[in-house]
Amino acid sequence: MMVSDPTVGVDFFARTIQIPSGPRIKLQLWDTAGQERFRSITKSYYRNSVGALLIYDITKRASFDHIPVWMNDAKRHIEPHRPVFVLVGCKLDLVNNGASKREVTEEEAKQFGAEHNIFTVETSAKTGSNVELAFSAITQEIYQRIKSGEYQMEEGWDGIKSGYSHHSASIDFNNYIEAEPAKSCC
Description:
Blueprint: E1 11-18, E2 24-31, H1 39-42, E3 51-57, H2 61-65, H3 67-78, E4 84-90, H4 92-96, H5 106-116, E5 119-122, H6 131-148, E6 161-162, E7 170-172
Parallel strand pairs: 2-7, 3-4, 4-5
Antiparallel strand pairs: 1-2, 6-7
């Protein structure tokens, strides 16, 4: 028997990624589930975003078929910024161990990625296969856009913020990190 723990509504995570020969970058991740019934509330989570992991289940064709809708929603709500996308096929372990049949080929996903100029990867949260690669890919592309000047820290926009760090420079996405309060003497 397989136990599933689906996202209901919106789930939040924070993740810090070390850029090779660069800063540590903190990502704020909002898992919006992609389910149609939550679509009206998930739109607000795109504001101040710079990227999105477009996740589909390789054993469920319908999830892949929704990718263009999710991508267009993200583009529309992230404007005027050009979002970074990574296309992520999940549940690779179910196909590899024979528990489920693949409904979306890796070639289809790569073709979609090539057409939209986005990185594609297949992952398994259960085994951890390629999960770090997905996070690293989106982080590195965001960092490249910062370095090129496409993304900048702007007044009134919370998409990219300089973070507080004791040891090294870091960039903090959608996250407030406050310095330690000053101690008073009296």
